[in-house]
Amino acid sequence: MTTRATRSPRRRTVIALAVVLAVLAGFIVRLVDIQVVNADVNMAQAQSYSLGATRTLYGTRGSIVDETGQTLAGSILQYDAQLSPSNAANYQRTDADGKQVAVPLSDIAAQIGAVTGQTAADVEKIVTDALAADPNSQFAYLKKGISTAEYRALADLGLPFIYFDQHPARTYTDGAVAGNLVGFMGTDATPLAGLEMMQNSCLASTDGSASYEKGKDGVMIPGTEQQNPAVDGGTLKLTINRDLQWYLQQLIGQQTQDMGALRGTITVVEVATGKIRAAAEYPSVDPNNVDAAEPQNRYSHIFSDTFEPGSTFKGLTASTVLDAGGQTVNSTVTVSGAEQFANGARVYDSFQHPAYNYTLAGVLIDSSNAGISRFSETVSTQTRYDYLQRFGIGSGSAVGFEGESKGLVVPPDQWDNQQTYNTSFGQGLTTTVPELVGAYDAIANGGTRMPLSLVESCTKADGTVITPTLPAPQPVMSADTSAQVRTMLENVALQASYADQVAVPGYRIATKTGTGEKSDGNGHYKVGVYFTTMIGFAPADDPQYIVAVTLDEPTKVTSSSANAPAFQKAMTQVLKTYRVMPSTTQPTLLPKFG
Predict the structure, then answer these.
(1) How far apart are CA 380 and CA 87, in angstroms?
(2) Handedness of CA 301, 304, 310, 314 (dihedral sign)
(3) Third-level CATH fold of 242-577
(4) Three-state SS for 575?
(5) How far is CA 430 from CA 25, 160, 517, 562, in A?
């Protein structure tokens, strides 16, 4: 028997189920109405509110690092601050009573400007100009390239109509260290100089993109974003040692100023590999602040400048007459301080002296122009020219640096009477620092010239390592000739007037200087103006590193002895940096006279 008590719960259950079914039926009817009956109308309305948008996904430009992986050039994040003008103009906040209160644009603009460095009027103008062009505007740039600190400060304001697009920007961690080599970027992120431009194929990134739909309020509609990912640039590893480069830049800066020179350079090359371990210059450029450097100081003079090498070429001529002219270190010629030759040419030494019976070693020790000219007669002019080509003079270097120059040596059939002899001691022709260092590498490296290199590798974003293709080593002279020239150059370091200035305690050093005259551009030489060079290697008995120091127009000391202090300090630092063991053998002293 069913009682009233048992009927009541059942009735309530039936009623509740009926209500649920009625609500569900209502939803179904409404869903059919939206998705079927009025689908076209609703879709058109939704599309009128939603806006398609695309943003760039920036790839990161690759880093430039030294031989140890220390960063010379890298990328940091900067941000482009954007805003929705229509939302900024109608911005409301909830007050203490929970009411929505309109916030004047001028108040917001002042807060924003305090972060970005803009005036309130500047910020207001961005909004009003955008709304004047489009009353429903959802986009305008607030400020491009803001720092991370500015980004965080703007985000902390909690303004929902400000949003950010991040992208990488270039930075140079150590400023001017290797600045002349690394180069710099333009404000539009275009590489403009140095390795940044030369190696752009390694360093450049590929930007991607993200497309999405956003609603009327400018907010992205979830689930609508599609991405084409960016690809980062590769890491460019150099042969340069950052710490050594820094030290040598300080050193050459000081020496250039002390000697009152226009500019100076120090170049260091590893003998066995031809790798450039330092290429220091003064003046230099800080890629973070390019405008602070004069235009002529924004590139590498080591690679771009040509000069008459002067007596440094006596080492090349000595190599030639030893290798092809049947001479020895003890072969002799008799010359005075001024010599006239059969073709009418006259050659003068830098000091007055009577007729000396010079050995070949003595000619190098005293740097006798007349003596090396006499020795040059033991081979033909064509042979001398051929050896200069084998030494790499006039061919540039394997580095192929941006703006790199080549020396000029005209064929011997174009030499006049004076040039026939002057070329034996570095006049009447030109060279570059890389060419000169490469030639001395042949002397130091057993007679084989190694191609110079500045780039170790490029490691792509996917891990692929690409190493540069270099020319084959160039045989120049026999190993025996190389050994004899090394011994003579060591005797120069031991017996020349500047011997005490270049000595490095514990190490056997080989050197040669050059004082090259400078053209006035009108077929004559400037009076009392020189380009001075000192080049050498150590240890002389087992050469590991070559150091070359140049000064352009020194005025305090105008001879190549102006380079000696910097050479000694540079060589000392190089041997320390690479932990080269001191010499354990004694040098062979050679006589100057026969």
Answers:
(1) 87
(2) positive
(3) Beta-lactamase (3.40.710)
(4) helix
(5) 97, 67, 11, 21
Helix (H, G, I), strand (E, B) or coil at 170: strand
Cα separation, 309 vs 388, in Å, equals 13
Domain boundaries, the chain: 60-207+217-231, 242-577
pLDDT given at position 292: 95
Distance CA 493, CA 534 (A): 11
CB-CB neighbours of 177 under 10 Å: 26
Judged against a pLDDT cut of 80, whether residue 23 lies above it is answered with no
Burial of 68 (0-12, 13-18, 19+ CB in 10 A): exposed
Give the pLDDT band (50/70/90) at residue 340: very high
Neighbours of 330 (CB within 10 A): 13
Q: Look at residue 219 in the predicted model and tell me its pLDDT.
A: 58
DSSP string for 181-200: HH--B-TTS-B-SHHHHHTH
User: Tokens for 390?
Assistant: 């084998």
Torsion of CA 174, 178, 183, 189, to 10 degrees: -20
Task: State the residue for tokens 């760039």.
Answer: 56
Helix (H, G, I), strand (E, B) or coil at 483: helix
**283: cis peptide before it, omega within 30°?**
yes
Q: Is residue 82 within 8 Å of 126, Cβ to Cβ?
A: no
For residue 184, give Cα distances in angstroms to 75, 106, 171, 200: 12, 40, 9, 11
- Identify the helix (H) or strand (E) that includes residue 266: strand 263-270
Name the CA radius of gyration of the chain, rounded. Answer: 37
- Within 8 A by CB and 6+ apart from 561, the residues are 497, 498, 501, 513
In the chain, DSSP finds a helix count (H) and a strand count (E) of 20, 23
Angstrom CA distances, 339 to 266, 343, 375, stand at 35, 12, 13
The string of DSSP letters for 485-540 reads HHHHHHHHHHHSTTHHHH--TTS--EEEEEEEEEE-SSSSEEEEEEEEEEEEEEST
- In this structure, what token pair is assigned to residue 457? 């590798």
The CATH label, of 3.40.30.10, 3.30.2400.10, 3.90.1310.10, 3.20.20.140, for the domain at 60-207+217-231 is 3.90.1310.10
Q: What residue type is 452 in one-letter code?
A: L
Amino acid letter, residue 288: N
What sign results for the dihedral spanned by CA atoms 191, 194, 195, 198? positive
Query: Could you tell me whether strands 64-65 and 235-238 are parallel, antiparallel, or unpaired per DSSP bridges?
Result: parallel
For residue 297, report the phi and psi dihedrals to the nearest 5 degrees: -105, 10
Name the token pair of 412.
């011997």
pTM of the model: 0.83
Helices (H), 33-66: 39-49
Please report which helix (H) or strand (E) contains residue 459, including its range: strand 455-459
C-alpha span between 569 and 563 (Å, rounded): 10
pLDDT tens track for 36-57: 666 666 555 555 544 566 777 7
Cβ neighbourhood burial of 18 (10 Å; 0-12, 13-18, 19+): exposed
Decide if 210 contacts 37 (C-beta within 8 A): no
Both structure tokens of 446 = 């057993």
